[in-house]
Amino acid sequence: MTTAPENYFPRLAEFPHAALFEGVAHVWEAIGALESYVRAALESSGAAEADPGELDGLRIDEGMISSAGLFVAPETMMIARAGVLIEKGVRIEPGVVVKGPTILCAGSELRHGAYLRGRCLIGPRAIVGHATEVKNSVFLEHAEAGHFAYVGDSFLGADSNLGAGTKLANLQFRTEAEKREKNVCHIEIRIDGKRIDTGLRKFGAIVGEHTEIGCNVVTSPGTLLGPGCWVVPNTTVSKGLYPANHLIRAGGGKPSVVPRK
């Protein structure tokens, strides 16, 4: 299995922001490009600035919006002060905080207590659920993280789902000396026996299309799950590549990985 974006997201051409992945050899390279892409997309969107009368339920601050009541976008609108583009039909429940730059695509849903820390691209009909935190990440169409999840520096493929309590860890352990000296320790993974430097200090997970992750799963920084994988609840997934359509469950050391029937 290669690390090209289309190997994890077979329907990538249907995603309205597929341009993020143009010219990308390894899917994780788009993580480092996400912020600049979102900022450019905001500038070129052509969306009209929101009329204050249309923002009932939202509080607008510099670089951030927060929700005190239910808000459903009647049309696509730009909130330039916050750095947030909200497309038609986006649903934002009370208690949500969204920092810019962020794009919320048509029909996406942010449920009570969701926290988007900026540099987020939430695709059409995707769901960011209750008490879920998202940072520098992409949800492709109808990706769901419904309850108590952490999604950092990660991509969720179309129709993928994170069970309650899923954590996509994005930062490796560091020694006290590394913390003091602020050393940049890039995340490395093995591919065909070769150690590959991703060039990223923070890298969570690539979750392939139609992948199902059970409750209370933790993925280690630098995990790539192929399309159609199932991860059994309470599993800790070691970093590395996992082929499409495999079942991953907790083992004595590394998780066991077997083809799905």
Walk me through this protein's architecture.
This protein has helices at residues 5-8, 29-44, 176-181; strands at residues 58-61, 64-67, 71-72, 77-79, 84-86, 91-92, 97-99, 102-104, 109-110, 115-116, 120-122, 127-130, 133-135, 138-139, 144-147, 150-152, 155-156, 161-162, 167-168, 188-191, 194-197, 205-207, 212-213, 218-219, 223-225, 230-231, 236-237, 240-242, 246-249, 256-259. It has one domain: UDP N-Acetylglucosamine Acyltransferase, domain 1 (3 Solenoid), CATH 2.160.10.10. Strand 20 and strand 21 form a beta hairpin. The chain is built from three helices and 30 strands. It is globular. The strands form four sheets. The chain has a ten-stranded mixed beta sheet with strand order 3-6-9-12-15-18-23-26-29-30, with no helix packed on it. It has a nine-stranded mixed beta sheet with strand order 1-2-7-10-13-16-19-24-27, with no helix packed on it. The chain is 10% helix and 33% strand. The longest helix is centred in the N-terminal third of the chain and has 16 residues, at 29-44.
Span between termini: 19 Å
CATH topology: UDP N-Acetylglucosamine Acyltransferase, domain 1
* Residues in β-strands, percent: 25-35%
**CA-based shape:** globular
CATH architectural group = 3 Solenoid
Structural class: mainly beta
- Percentage of residues in helical conformation: under 10%
The CATH superfamily appears as Hexapeptide repeat proteins
Ranges with pLDDT <50 over ≥5 residues?
Answer: none
How would you sum up this structure in a few lines?
With 261 residues, this protein is mainly beta.
